[in-house]
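Reproducibility note. Readers wishing to regenerate the assembly model reported in the main text can use the exact inputs given here. Chain order matters: entities are listed in the order in which they were concatenated for prediction.
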Amino acid sequence: MNASRLSRLALGLASLPLSAAALAAGPAMEAAQKQPLNLHAIGMFFVFVLMTLGITYWAASRTKSASDFYTAGGGITGFQNGLAIAGDYMSAATLLGLTAMMYAQGVDAYIYMIAFFVGWPIILFLMAERLRNLGKFTFADITAYRLDQGKVRTMAAVSSLTVVCFYLVAQMVGAGQLIKLLFGLDYTVALFVVGALMMVYVTFGGMVATTWVQIIKACMLLLGGTTVMLLALSQFGFSFEALATRAMEVHKLGPKLFNPGSLLADPVTAISLGLGLMFGTAGLPHILMRFFTVTDAKEARKSVLYASGIIAYFFNVIALMGLAAILIVGQNPQYFEGGDLAGKIVGGGNMVAMHLAHAVGGNLLLGFLSAVAFATILAVVAGLALAGASAISHDIYARVIMKGRASETTEIRVSKFATIGLGVVAVLLGIVFEKMNVAFMVALAFGVAASANFPVLILSMYWKGLTTRGALAGGYLGLFSAVTFVVLSKSVWVDVLGNAAPIFPWTQPALFSMPLAFLATIVVSLLDSSHKARSEREAFEDQYVRAQTGVGAASAAAH
Amino acid sequence: MSSSVYAHIRRNPRFAELVAKRTRFATLLAAIVLVVFYGFVLVVAFAPQIVGQRLSEGSNLTIGIVAGLFQFIFFWVLTFVYVRRANGEFDAINTEIVRAAWQEEK
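Running the prediction on these inputs yields the following structure tokens for the assembly.
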């Protein structure tokens, strides 16, 4: 197997379900011509927007304190939060990218989906209750719990903003391309619509509105996906055997459709990818923040139970959709350019799910699924913006600059300005990067989350010996090494900077940058014999009791 | 939050018991997930022919598909098992410890 082809494949696959960015990045997107206006889709999207704006109006009246703004007052139930987490985690590219991958590569896509799912049980077993018991508004509340507030929060905010900005830009570019394709709107217009709606949701409705946008979107996604799957399966008498037999007959892979292919052929890439997905998820600021919105550890655990159930179910729906599409879309000349079954799919490979919806449910279902894709982008982008804004206002402004003396009113005001600022930056960068391959940004976001956020976070919860110096060393080294590895990898060094060969041969940094961060944190902490380090180690005892029992955590949500 | 409540809790032997029980349980479940998943990944990477094998002659179900579906269901069942025990048994002990600590505080 040609190494560069493999790494390109792995990167493409890695980014597909994470972000709509890959939609813009993959070669399939070269065919992303503007489509004629899709009135069904626009109509249904309009209904979604009206509904969410209504919710935002209602949420605005309930968003008074900082706790309302950042964590919906901590009053979200486990079930609601589970839906919202699923809504936050499953992006438009999960629906489109994974269906397309199943359609093109068969069982490889299914194996890949497990990697996406498996992080959730781990988050539940190792982190969920501690996150809730220790956290308040941002995950830096946990890492800075017994360490130097100013320095550790600054570091956490820098890496959070790095993750948020790259993920946000990747989403924006993907959104622009996707909306151009699905709705027939201009790229720039699409960016302004996404940016403006995101700012309205977050600045007026805070976490209450963001949560409900994510919940509604998750329900729409489940409804749309299930409907398409059932209609598609009904054509095969709901028999997996019949579907699979016929799919193998017509697919170019033949019986190999159900054999693993190139996806995981290189163990280093496979394991690095697995680690990055699993621990990157556990270090994404907007995902971590969702754990602070529930009442207590009980509800935090339930959130993961519901979220992982929904995610597991939906991945199986997508797998069946992709398989059915091999016959329903792949054998219908209507969906191929020039009616040539061997040629390109109209609108590019990522349109398979949309074509399937059209084939089984006509324009109405196509419109609905398009509206779902748009809603999905909004939900993810709103969550990201809120996480970024809270890093700026709660960590940098209130704790680092004002050293805890900022009034709640000004802190909320700062976070609203920060949201608007992030929205403007996201739209502008989205326009700048329109023609660029932004797949590396997703690798970067997950790499930084797994290497800069996760090691310090998990050690602060589990290891008494962690000191400020150790946290800073590991956090900054994780950030620096993840960024460096991605820059030196093919996706930036060759694809963006135009060099002949990559210096770092793999596309996924996690297998290398994560151990580096852990090592640096542990070694520097062990060598730290300062007076401060001693008191930081002593403070672990109380933190540990709170992490285990939740004593002291209830009051955290109240003020 | 006064530090003395934390001290009371730390001195309660039930606290050590709770932490030991819950940690052992969570570690065991996490280890199962990691071993099963990364074991599967290694089989896919080094022995893909096993993953592609049909369960029986003439069937379309391969070991890969069955193993995949099994992991989705099994891992979710593990989360269910954990949440059930943590929200029931463990939380009951937790409430008891916290109540005792507040009483001592008064």
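We highlight two features of this model. Residues 1-31, 555-559 of chain A have pLDDT under 50 and may be disordered. Chain A touches chain B through 52 residues (CB under 8 Å).
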